[in-house]
Amino acid sequence: MFSLSTDAAPGRPNEDFVVATPDLAIVVDGAGVPMGGCHHGVAWYAQQLGAGALAALVGRPDLLLTEGLYEALAAVAASHADTCDLSDPGTPCAAVGILRLGTDTVDTLALSDVTVMVENDHGPHITCDLRIEEISGTEPEAVAGLLFNTPEHKAALTALVSNQTRTRNRPDGWWVAAADPEAARHAVANSYPRSAVRRLAIFSDGATRPVDQMGLYRWPEYLDLLDKVGPAGLIAHVREIETADPEGATHPRTKRHDDATLASWSCENAANSTPH
Question: Which residues have a Cβ under 8 Å from the Cβ of 98 and sit 6 or more positions away?
């Protein structure tokens, strides 16, 4: 069984979404200008896409994860194409991570910067699509040395978002879930033998900050901490780190807090949940 937790950035609606069955987990990290092009909003889009991907993949173990996500993207776009302007640059989009446990394999998919982690006897293996950073640069680099709520920080953030929007969902750019279902076929997908798997997890980028943005942990240590405190405890730890650096002076980032979501699975927990 997967253990799940999600927490909104304080004072904001949660634009992440997580859903799971015993052998399938999906994390969606929504983004976009609030209400831009779509009157439903970012949270609605993340929820619809996650539920749609679950519906497409459940009971279809031979369907490629990319094809299940393609079907979900097409269905969600069709559901509001008549009421919303899906060509508007502010129309919601989302990063997506999927984990599926099959009889013999574990399949992973990442579209944009959700991190999907498979740990086996050789250590952690990451599926994450970082083309957004390769093209536009990382968030800490973009706001290095700048404090929250200063004109300089706001200008740097505006420039970063503008560059990300300009290069989004194009052949020479980076890909994210949005109105065109073709984005699903640009996701990063991997497969691993199930027999060697020890731990699995999906993290939205708000939950990986201590590793990939702040450099406070390496992945094995972070997974050990997750085992110790659980998904909700790990997110609470992220909030403690963020709160201790309220201006972004120690850990430069685009916003003080971000929505944080994760789904985790371990072979030990799976064994403990098996009926005897």
Answer: 24, 25, 26, 27, 53, 57, 65, 68, 69, 107, 108, 109, 110, 116, 202
CA distance 207 to 94: 16
Distance (Å, whole) CA 73 – CA 67: 10
Enclosing H/E stretch for 123: strand 123-127
pLDDT per residue over 22-67, tens digit each?
999 999 999 976 657 888 989 999 999 999 999 999 999 999 999 9
pLDDT tens string 205-248: 999 999 999 999 999 999 999 999 999 999 999 999 999 999 99
Rounded distance between C-alpha atoms, residue 56 and residue 216, angstroms: 38
What are the backbone dihedrals phi and psi of residue 84, each rounded to the nearest 5 degrees, phi first? -130, 155
Structure tokens at 177: 């879930």
- Structural domains of the chain sorted by starting position, each given as residue range(s) with its CATH number in brackets: 3-267 (3.60.40.10)
Q: Are strands 115-120 and 105-111 parallel, antiparallel or unpaired?
A: unpaired
| Single pTM value for the model | 0.94
